[in-house]
Amino acid sequence: MINFLYKFAQILIRIILWINGGVLVKGQENIPREGGVIIAANHISYIDPPLLGAVLPRRAAFMARKGLFEIPLLKWFIKQTSIPVDRQKTSPSTIKEAVRRLRNGEVIVLFPEGRRSETGEILEAKRGIGMIASLARVPIVPAFIKGSNKALPINAKWLKRADITVVFDKPIYYTSIRKDNYPDNLSHEIVSKEIMTAISKLKKQYADNSR
Fold first, then answer.
1. Which residues contact 186 (CB under 8 A, 6 or more apart)?
2. Mean pLDDT, the chain cut into blocks of 10 residues (211 residues total)
3. Which residue, of 17, 18, 111, 164, has the fewest CB within 10 Å?
């Protein structure tokens, strides 16, 4: 049932976004087709999670704030597709669940900044993604989202017509950025910063393009 609902939601979201202006997706070939994968994206609009879920070639689970799990009508579906996160303090159980799923071959979507950027600028990454990447040791695919903040601006009650672009970069492998001479807590920060650096490079490359 959940697989059917997930596919149905993907199709429905794609149709809505297509009618609303369209979504250009680049670099899907960079997403490994099997095995655990972290998709690490910038976060500029509340529609970013369903947007990524709609364009990813594989079913994904999302790290989502706890409040979303209490939304009537949607909470059952959200519980099936997401891992609850306390934005004030990420619990060890949340980290363990994400790592378990990644080691089990799932795709996890993370927003390293930990919250939506109201200005559209790239924010500093939290340590959580570095910790998860360090423990799971799976490929990390940086992703850049452009235009979703125009489709659903802050305080907007409904979608506005806008072009959206989603770019997936080549995977980053944990072993290429792990610094063995650093303690774990500092290593986690380094991994997080490397991931955000990759997303920032995508932003510089695509931010000024018309699509």
1. 179
2. 88 94 96 96 94 95 73 71 75 89 96 90 87 91 96 91 96 70 66 92 82 58
3. 18
